[in-house]
Amino acid sequence: FPVTIPTSGIGIDVWLKLDRSRGISFNSRHEKGLLMKHIHLDSCDSTQDYLKEQLTLSAENDDLLVTCETQTQGHGRNQNKWDPLPHSLYMSFILQSHPQVTWTAIELSVILSDYFLEKFGEELKLKWPNDIYDSSGKKCCGILIQQSSGKHIAGIGINLLSSNEWGGIFHRIPTNISKREWCADIYQYILIVTGK
């Protein structure tokens, strides 16, 4: 059933339908006219693992964005664990890699840094090859690129607020949009910047 949800000015119309996978599936159209499938889960082990499962079910999942409220077993490079924090964003999607594949994660890091600078005035620091640090020098974002079924899958974890151990982009969150809407806006920004 079509429903338009106000999104605090980020320009996304959403059509909802129930998804059997304990979440909600969305088809979102950004103000620029880009269409994507979006599955948002209450909880999952890993958005990347969930997306990999979806790829085995259908070849038509190339434009799928998977996000969740809570990720319980997120992972990074070299089997590092991504600890879940209350105010974090978790998302995975397929992307066309940079022509020099090893540059894909840093390219995404630059795009994400530009997103937070352009939209919120937050300056972030990049660390080769896949990390973003906040203004206090603490890690606040990690990017993991994996291959599955011949495709590159990007997994991104973003801490919006800091904890004692981890950094965060903000001292207080500047907007009240949902995690689902925020992830969709970031993904659409990535698609626009990369021309996909």
Summarize the structure.
By secondary structure, the chain is of the alpha+beta class. It has helices at 47-57, 104-120, 179-194; strands at residues 12-19, 23-30, 35-44, 64-71, 74-75, 81-82, 88-95, 125-127, 131-133, 139-148, 151-159. It is 22% helix and 36% strand.
Core attributes:
3 helices, nine-stranded mixed β-sheet, 196 residues, alpha+beta, disordered N terminus, globular
What does this structure look like?
The protein has 196 residues and is an alpha+beta fold. The chain is built from three helices and eleven strands, in the order E-E-E-H-E-E-E-E-H-E-E-E-E-H. Strands 1-2-3-4-7-11-10-9-8 form a nine-stranded mixed sheet, with helices on both faces. It has a two-stranded antiparallel sheet with strand order 5-6. Helix 2 (104-120) packs across helix 3. The radius of gyration is 16 Å and the shape is globular.
